[in-house]
C-alpha cells in the first residue's frame, strides 16, 4: 500500500517555495484544501537550496517580500538592504509558521508524473515516494531556476576532490581554508561566491566562459528610519511595484532616452546610479534595452569601471564583457567581485581560448594546463524556466505528453496554462514576466489570478478549464515579437535556453513588463476568461476530499 494511496484532493501544488507557499494560503482562503509536494525537507525553494557562501538577493529586502498581508510586512524586520540567503530562509520559515502552511505540505517528496483523465477531469499525480494522488487542479510552482545544470565534462567521476553546485549546496558549512578551489561559471551565483571563496581558499581558480556585467551592490545593514518610512508607505510602494515593469517600486521610471541627453549628463547619471548599487541601472533611460547605441553608452561606462578596479590590464581585459549588450543577460550585483581579481591567490582562466577538456583525478585539464584542485564549485546555472516543468512527465491519458508539445520551445497562453492540458496552472510559467521581474511580485500576481479563476469555476460549477490553442498561438507570437523588438535576443542567455545544449532557442519570459502583463491578465478574466474554454458542468460535488 502506498503512503497516500488513492488520496483525492481538490488542488495539488508542486513546490513549496515562495510560489507554492502563497498558493497554499490563497487556495485555503477560497475554501479549498490544497496539498503540496516539496522535494526539499522544508519550505523556501531557491533559498532552501542555494546555501553557497555569499548567496543573497539582488532585489532590496523591502521589496523582495510578500505584500499580501499587511501585518506580515509590518512585523518582519530585515537586517540588511539586500537580504542574505539565511535571512530569506528564516523569513520563509516565519511565513510558514504564521500561516500554518506546513500541515499542507509533504516534504522530501518529488513529483515525477501527472496524468490528466479527460473522462473524469482529474489529474493523477505520482511522486518518487510512491504517492498516487488525484486532484481537480494542479498548480505547478516548482520555480524557474530550480533544476541545477552540471556540464557533462569527460571524466567527471574520476575527480577525487569535492564537487559542489551552487544551486544544491550542502546544509552543513563547508570549510575551504587551505584548499585549492576551482569555480566554473561567472553568472550571478559565481559572481557572489567567488569573492567569498577567494578569502577562504589557499588558491582560487575561476574558469570563465563569458564575462558578465556586474555592479557593486553597496549592501549595508538596514537603516531603521528608512525601514520605518518604507513600512509607512508600503501601500503606495507595493501598488507602484505591481504596475511597474520590473515589479520594483524603487527602480527609476525612465522619462528620457539615453541618446537624447548630452554625454556629460549621461555620464553623471551613470556615475550616480553606479553608487546607488541597484539593477535599476539598466532602467535609467527608456532606450537602454531597445537601442544598441543607447545600450552601448551604459555598457562602455561599466567596462571603464572594470578597467579602473582591476589593476592588471590583461586581467581586466579578460573580465570585460564585449559579446552582449548590458542587461541582456541578467545584470549582476556583487560585493568586491572585480576587486577579487587583484588578490595574489586568484587566477582567471578564459575557457573560450583555453577550453576545459576533462576532469581528472587531480583537478581540471584545460587545453593548455592541468589545474590541480581540491574542490570544484559548479556555478553553471540551471535548466531554466522549463526545466522543472519538463522534469515531470505531464501527459493526458491516451494523448499528448507536455515534453512532446514543447519539443520546439514552450507554448503557453499568458504563461498560465498550456493548451491541451486542462486544469494545470503554471506559476511564473514561460510566457509570463517571471524571471525578468521581482519574482515575488510576479508570483503574487499569478497566484491571485489562479485563485480568482478557480473560485469562478467553483461558483459557476465548471470543472474543466483549458487554454484555447488559437489564443495560445497569438500569445506565443506576441511574446516573440516583443522579444524581437528588444536587445534581449542578442545574448546567448539562459532566458533563451542557450546554456543547455540542444534546448530550443526561444526567449522564454514575457518581456513587456509586469504592469502591462497584469492588466492583460485582468482584462482576460474580466471578459469571462477570454481565450480559455470552460466546460464540464459538475454533477457531483468534486470535493470528495479527504482532509490534508
Ligand atoms: O547561472 P547562470 P547562475 N563551461 O546561467 C557558465 C538567479 N540568481 O546560477 O555565460 C564553462 O547565469 C556560464 O557561461 P556562459 C539570476 O536570475 C540570482 O549564476 O553560458 N562555463 C555562466 O557564466 C541568475 O541569472 C541571484 O557562457 C559554463 C555560468 O556558468 C540565475 O539565477 C543569485 C559552462 C552560469 O551562469 C542563474 O544564475 C544567483 C561550461 N560548460 C542566481 N556551462 C541573486 O539574486 C555554464 N557555464 C543575486
Quaternary status = single chain
Distance N to C terminus = 18 Å
Question: How many H/I helices?
Answer: 16
User: Can you identify the CATH class of the largest domain?
Assistant: Alpha Beta
| β-strand amount | 15-25%
Q: Which structural category fits the helices and strands?
A: alpha/beta
Biggest β-sheet, characterized?
8 strands, mixed
Explain what this protein looks like in three dimensions.
The protein is α/β, with parallel strands linked by helices. It has 2 domains: 6-147 and 384-544, FAD/NAD(P)-binding domain; 156-378, no CATH class. It has 16 helices and 20 strands. Strand 13 (356-360) and strand 14 (363-366) form a beta hairpin. The longest helix has 22 residues, at 439-460. Mean pLDDT is 96; it is low at 539-548. 3-acetylpyridine adenine dinucleotide is lined by residues 57-58, 145, 151, 166, 184-190, 192, 207, 209-210, 330, 333, 351, 356, 379-382, 435, 494, 499. 3-acetylpyridine adenine dinucleotide binds at residues 57-58, 145, 151, 166, 184-190, 192, 207, 209-210, 330, 333, 351, 356, 379-382, 435, 494, 499.
